[in-house]
TrEMBL record:
Protein name: Oxidoreductase
Pfam families: adh_short (PF00106)
Source taxonomy: Bacteria, Bacillati, Actinomycetota, Actinomycetes, Mycobacteriales
Coiled-coil segments: none
All residue ranges annotated as the Ketoreductase domain in the record: 2-183
Keywords: Oxidoreductase
The keyword DNA repair belongs to this UniProt entry's keyword annotation: no
Organism whose genome encodes this protein: Mycolicibacterium arenosum
């Protein structure tokens, strides 16, 4: 039996992961800013479900949630860093306050929760950390630059932890979903930069329109994503990152191809930066 600690578990991926884990007989600490929403969504969770208040931007709530998890179940086997927010708007259109708000949740919140859970995992010499990134953590598009920057940061943290924690028996993996049919594009999850600059109408403006037009029409199935993520606890080894959905697979493959072409075209110039060898 695996004990899961899931942030942002009241809806979207977090809720489906909680449901999937419970259906397999696992125990779940499902955290949300309003834990009652979790209990309403999973009324039959029973003793294996612990719903806890947690705003990842509030340090005291992080400590209390982790303590409650240990008090109830004695350990945390798998941490799913799922809580996050979106932001659409050109980089120049995004205010300092708008950028900091999304970094506070997507990066600093994830970091704080992870650092609160890791002492327990290190003492166990076992554990799984699943960091919900995005295909936007590997590929950035017009209109999503600041959001992608938060997910690029998540990728860096996750990749470093993969190698820092492996000798301690702990696995870290970044999950890169493409567009999935969750509430991510709703106003409750996706912020829109208040400023609009006409020069970006065909780029960031198109991204804003796509967000409205695509809401609840995305190709990704969150139930399948939840099954894949819960399955990760059964693997002996995991890669640094896993894409979910054809959009993510194709976008990452396309960037790798572009990078390889650029590297080859600029190889001589890149290598010329070193001191000359005798």
């Amino acid at each position: 039996m695996t004990v899961w600690f899931i942030t942002g578990a009241s809806r979207g991926f977090g809720l489906e992961i909680a449901r999937e884990a419970l259906s397999r007989g696992d125990s779940v600490v499902a955290t949300a800013r309003n834990p009652q929403t979790v209990l309403d969504a999973i009324p039959g969770g029973g003793d294996r479900l612990l719903a806890v208040q947690l705003d990842v931007a509030v340090p005291a709530q992080i400590t209390d949630a982790v303590d409650a998890a240990i008090a109830r179940f004695g350990r945390i086997d798998a941490l799913v860093n799922n809580a996050g927010r979106g932001l659409v708007g050109a980089v120049e259109e995004t205010s300092d306050a708008e950028a900091r708000a999304v970094f506070d949740v997507n990066v600093f919140g994830l970091l704080a929760v992870t650092n609160a859970v890791l002492p327990q995992m290190r003492s166990q010499r076992s554990g799984l950390i699943v960091n919900l990134s995005s295909v936007g953590g590997f590929v950035a598009w017009p209109g999503w630059g600041v959001y992608a920057a938060t997910k690029f940061a998540v990728e860096a943290l996750s990749e470093a932890m993969t190698h820092e924690l492996a000798p301690l028996g702990i696995t870290s993996v970044a999950i890169e979903p493409g567009p999935f049919r969750t509430n991510f594009l709703d106003g409750t999850s996706l912020s829109v930069a208040e400023a609009r600059i006409d020069d970006y109408a065909d780029t960031a403006g198109a991204a804003r329109e796509w967000a409205v037009d695509s809401n609840y029409g995305q190709n990704g199935d969150p139930l399948m994503a939840a099954k894949i993520i819960v399955d990760l606890a059964s693997y002996a080894e995991l890669p640094e990152r896993i894409q979910l959905g054809a959009n993510a697979v194709n976008d990452v493959a396309g960037k790798l191809e572009r990078t390889a072409r650029d590297q080859e075209a600029w190889r001589a110039i890149s290598l010329s930066a070193d001191y000359a060898t005798s």
